# Entry
Amino acid sequence: MAQTIAAPAAGTEAPAPLPLKAIAPWALFVGVLMLVLLYFIGAEQGATSLLSGTDVHEWVHDGRHLLGFPCH
Amino acid sequence: MNSLTIRNLLVRGMLAGLAAGVLAFVVAYFLGEPRVDAAIAFEEGHSHDHGHEVEVVSRAMQSTAGLATGVLVYGVALGGIAALVFCFALGRIGRFGARTTAVLLSGAALVVYLVPFLKYPANPPAVGDPDTIGQRTALYFLMMLLGILLAVGATLLGRRLAPKLGNWYATVAAGAAFVVAVGIAYAFLPSFDNVPHGFSGTLLWQFRLSTLGIQLVLWTAFGLLFGHLAERVVTPARQAVAAEPAPVAS
# Structure
């Protein structure tokens, strides 16, 4: 009986927060990189174009429609 | 040590996002693609200039490798972002363990997806005026950003109200404030009616339902998988004692 009470209590114990100073550099560099990826999947050669042509748009065309981005 | 923990969580977030992306791709291919094809057939039947556009990428590639690229990169990128938000949220949003935090985060991501979707829903090919693509894209992302800011605001409001109202009523009040704020934004932002005459209502509904199915599968899979992986990163000692025999040095 004591065991069944002790086990979930250990599981629901809230972990200590990770320090913001340790998160910040990862959030900045990786976060920006991820947003750039999302931009190329979601909007490049649609609303705005960094690259000329329509290759990127055509390649991810179906994904753009099905992921809910405005495509054209 | 903490930076290492964050790196481990980030890598697992991106891997969980990739795996969730694979499942989302299966849903997109089997539920979404038939509707995309039907919409393209309508578009070609009703195009004003009857000359065919030059096909840069074939339909066969768009519906397989192209779709996979889109969905998998989307999964990895959002998995990484979700892992970063998880690093911040863990231990800060209440007394929740890693798995519960991951699932709550996935739920929040679905809400953030739904906020722009209800105003600017996903459109199949043939629906949408190319002349307004810039405006629609800007409004879509504006609405998403607004959803994120309002969700953060509602969370802060809920935490502030909790001592006075108790957890349950504080959460209800914060949720209601969120819904009202989003409703006001819906009322004031412009709408678009781009559905061409004769386009099947059933097809439009099935297409949009399939896009919601993709998100539901993506985030459910991500929340459960990342929660499982994150739990092992956050509490490695307990896991090792509970589940594994003493590791042999390799």
